[in-house]
Structure formats: C-alpha cells, structure tokens
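Regression test case RT-17, inverse folding.

Input:
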C-alpha cells in the first residue's frame, strides 16, 4: 500500500494508483520522529480510496471545466442538428467564457448561483435553464466518475414560464375563416398571379390540425392520403440553423403520427397540390416557396402571416405559427374532442402535458359538463316528484 519517508528536505507519500503507476505526493517540512499528522491522515484516506476503488488522481481532480465539457460532449447521446446548433452557440457565448478555466474541483453551489443570477439579467428564464443544463451535464458526469462532490445542489433557477394557454392566445373559428380568406393579397395587380394564394392551405392546415412548424414544412406529397382523409406529420421535418435550412428524420418526440383531416382542409390541400405542385413526385415537399425551395419561418411570418392578419383586422394580439397550433387545440376542444384525442393529434408524449398547456381552454368543456349535470338533476328531481 502507501508508505511515508523523509527525503530531500520534505516528507514523501509513495503509493501505486489503481492503474499500477507509482505516484509520489510531497509535503515540505523539517525531519521529525513522527510524520506530520496531515500526511498520516492523507495516507489513511488514500488507502481507503484505493481499497474501495474510489481513487482519483490529483490531475483528474484539477481538470478544468473546459476539458471536461469536451469529454462530456463527445460522449453525449445523439441529438438533432438544430439542438446541437443551439447548444454550441449557448456554450460558446454564455458557458465556456465563464467556466472554461475553472477547475471542476473548485466549483461550488454558490458559484453556480452567482452565474445564474448574472445570466438572468440578460436573457429569459428558458434560456437560463438551457444554459444551466449544459453546465450540469459535465458536472454530473464528474460526480458519477467520483471526481467531485455534486455542486448542483439547490440551485436557484428562474421559474419556468407558465405554459398554460388561454383564449387570448388563440383565434376563434370565425377569425380563422377570416384569416384564411385574407391570405391572398387583394387587388387587380395580384389577382392574376397563380402564386398569390400559395400559403392559404398551409395556414388552414395550421389552424385546424396544429402541426409544429418544422413538421408542417416537412410534409411530403406521399404523407397525404385523400382516400382515408388523413395525413402524416413528423416523418420528415425541416429545421433552421441561422440562414441554413435542412431536413431531418422524425419530429422532436422522435416519432411520427397520423392525423385525421376534415374534408374542408383536405379539399384545400388537394387544391394546393393541383395548382402549386402539379408535377410533384411522391417524395417532394407539399409546401415550398415560390422558387420551389424550403420555406423560411421568418420570411413566412413577415411576408405572409403578418400581412394576412392585418387584412383580417386581427392586430390586437401577437399571432405566430405557434398561436395557430394553440388555435387548433382550442378548436378541437370546442368540437368536443377528448383530451386524449387532442394529445394524439398534437403529438404530445403524454396527455398530462396537453392538460397542463391547454387546461384553460378546457374550462368551457368543464362548464358545459356542469350545466348538463344540473339539467340532469332537475329532470331526475321532477321524475321523483
């Protein structure tokens, strides 16, 4: 095991580590009849660590966070290209400039708290929590390897934004009808352009079926089944890294789903296919821009959705594509679909998530149930009399 001796003006603790390499830890000091108490304690701790397989070398304890982040990143489970892009940017801008040169053994919970407070002054709660996740990953790996005690203890993170949606966040069925009619630009100058109503079916699909943006743009011709009145979302998705658009397989929940399509929506999709994609093959995208390429979300919002909302006189609320997805959920509840029906159509992993986000939209369903029960009780009371 370990041995202590006095050599060259200091005390030396010699031992072989868990890999069989000879190591020496040195403590300067004068000779004496008995070795220093701290060295004796270190010897006892060291032998216990070696015996239990928990030995950590001084070099590993002093590894910088930057070095350990690279190890963690290389061994991380596969993630989507869009998530990788976001993680790399947040690490480059907010994580590594602060923590890169810290020894992982020196990071304390209070240090993490201070960093979180600083981030909270310049970014939103969800971004702060995302950056903290990138910090916690390497540190938890170091804890698992036995290099450090866990510093991610009772960290005060900013609260999550309330995910619940209310009726101010969605459009009514009348507003959806008005918006769809206002997608084409009016006027004689535009009426003859075949591309003028290119995005009508896309917005109609968003308001009634509720796909995520990257799922909607990733729909291919073969995903549309007019005979069964259904379509598939999520087999191919379109993501965006800055100005670069690229396709990936499967949605954010790593699956795809088949959604029933109401006949008016199916008619609009088939009309779009006949007018704007008459020569499309089965593998071609159903929705493209005027040049036949992938649709950029920012350009769509600026050049199509925002002007259509203005023409429909829907200007008092901030409506985005996500709002159209929430609108679809609201209209599904209004139509009488159950929580599980809405969950499957929206592609949520669990009905609990659907309930958490859209609980306020279900209040009218609860009220309707209360009224029905009251009417039933009155009828029952009359029968009893």
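Golden output:
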């Amino acid at each position: 095991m370990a041995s202590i001796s006095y050599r060259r003006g200091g005390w030396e603790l010699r031992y072989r580590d868990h890999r069989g390499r000879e190591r020496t830890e040195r403590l300067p000091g004068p000779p004496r009849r008995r070795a220093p108490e701290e060295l004796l304690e270190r010897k006892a701790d060291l032998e216990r660590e070696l015996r239990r397989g928990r030995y950590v070398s001084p070099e590993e304890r002093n590894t910088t966070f930057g070095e350990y982040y690279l190890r963690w990143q290389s061994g991380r489970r596969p993630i989507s290209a869009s998530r990788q892009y976001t993680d790399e940017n947040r690490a480059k801008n907010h994580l590594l400039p602060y923590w890169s040169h810290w020894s992982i053994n020196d990071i304390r919970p209070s240090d993490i708290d201070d960093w979180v407070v600083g981030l909270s002054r310049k970014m939103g709660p969800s971004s702060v929590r995302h950056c903290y996740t990138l910090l916690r990953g390497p540190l938890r790996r170091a804890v698992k390897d036995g290099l450090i005690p866990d510093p991610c203890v009772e960290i005060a993170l900013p609260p999550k934004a309330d995910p619940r949606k209310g009726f101010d966040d969605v459009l009514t069925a009348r507003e959806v009808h008005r918006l769809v009619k206002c997608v084409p630009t009016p006027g004689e100058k535009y009426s003859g352009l075949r591309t003028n109503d290119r995005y009508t079916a896309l917005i109609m699909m968003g308001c009634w079926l509720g796909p995520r943006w990257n799922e909607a743009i990733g729909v291919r011709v073969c995903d549309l089944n007019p005979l069964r009145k259904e379509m598939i979302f999520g087999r191919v998705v379109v993501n965006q890294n800055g100005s670069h658009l690229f396709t990936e397989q499967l949605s954010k929940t790593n699956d795809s789903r088949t959604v029933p399509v109401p006949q008016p929506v199916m008619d609009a999709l088939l009309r779009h296919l006949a007018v704007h994609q008459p020569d499309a093959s089965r593998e071609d995208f159903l929705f493209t821009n005027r040049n036949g390429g992938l649709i950029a979300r920012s350009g769509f919002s600026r050049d199509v959705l925002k002007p259509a909302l203005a023409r429909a006189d829907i200007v008092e609320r901030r409506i985005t594509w996500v709002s159209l997805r929430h609108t679809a959920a609201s209209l599904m509840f209004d139509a009488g679909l159950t929580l599980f029906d809405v969950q499957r159509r929206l592609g949520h992993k669990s009905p609990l998530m659907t309930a958490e986000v859209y609980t306020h939209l279900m209040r009218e369903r609860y009220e309707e149930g209360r009224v029905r029960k009251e009417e039933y009780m009155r009828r029952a009371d009359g029968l009893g009399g």
